[in-house]
């Protein structure tokens, strides 16, 4: 990345927002694949504070933050931001992008990475038009998904197909609660953290 900056190129940073309750290999594969395809210098994982679209059964923000740190620690291009965890009130993506824009400076190009499920609803988000000005939008989808399925303008969003889309946090929580294993769906350290903190039982 020093070479890139020496050559006068802007730093390219991906932003992966999520509840991460828990973070799983679908998230990690998606971030890695997008970083590769878009030549990103860094991907920042941003666990939500209180997610406005989900109810109160979400695990404490500090647990979700720490699991995300554990899961990303070994990758030099992955980092975790506390902007949403530390901001009071519900989490809105437009606030996340504004905070990270300030933190990374005007010279950084931001790429907001989101799953196809959220792409469908993005126009209903707070200040949706602002989102497109603050960051490029990258939708991660399962093979076969078409942009027309999301009713978004084709030039505002790029699509990346990822192979691990079938993994979900909901399924991981249900497995733990049913006494089933989550090995290989989430990183080993996250398996151990879930057990240590008795999450989802
Ligand atoms: P839940 O089942 O609780 O909704 P989730 O697995 O969808 O959880 P989130 O924390 O809601 O995880 O997702 C964070 C971001 O990652 C979202 O943009 C979501 O669309 C995306 N995402 C979720 N699962 C995958 C996956 N398997 N592959 C790629 N992206 C994913
Ligand atoms: Mg989800």
UniProtKB/TrEMBL annotation:
<protein>
    <recommendedName>
        <fullName>Probable nicotinate-nucleotide adenylyltransferase</fullName>
        <ecNumber>2.7.7.18</ecNumber>
    </recommendedName>
</protein>
<dbReference type="InterPro" id="IPR005248">
    <property type="entry name" value="NadD/NMNAT"/>
</dbReference>
<dbReference type="InterPro" id="IPR004821">
    <property type="entry name" value="Cyt_trans-like"/>
</dbReference>
<keyword id="KW-0067">ATP-binding</keyword>
<keyword id="KW-0662">Pyridine nucleotide biosynthesis</keyword>
<dbReference type="Pfam" id="PF01467">
    <property type="entry name" value="CTP_transf_like"/>
</dbReference>
<comment type="pathway">
    <text>Cofactor biosynthesis; NAD(+) biosynthesis; deamido-NAD(+) from nicotinate D-ribonucleotide: step 1/1.</text>
</comment>
<dbReference type="GO" id="GO:0016779">
    <property type="term" value="F:nucleotidyltransferase activity"/>
</dbReference>
<comment type="function">
    <text>Catalyzes the reversible adenylation of nicotinate mononucleotide (NaMN) to nicotinic acid adenine dinucleotide (NaAD).</text>
</comment>
<dbReference type="InterPro" id="IPR014729">
    <property type="entry name" value="Rossmann-like_a/b/a_fold"/>
</dbReference>
<keyword id="KW-0547">Nucleotide-binding</keyword>
<feature type="domain" description="Cytidyltransferase-like">
    <location>
        <begin position="15"/>
        <end position="175"/>
    </location>
</feature>
<keyword id="KW-0548">Nucleotidyltransferase</keyword>
<keyword id="KW-0808">Transferase</keyword>
<keyword id="KW-0520">NAD</keyword>
<comment type="similarity">
    <text>Belongs to the NadD family.</text>
</comment>
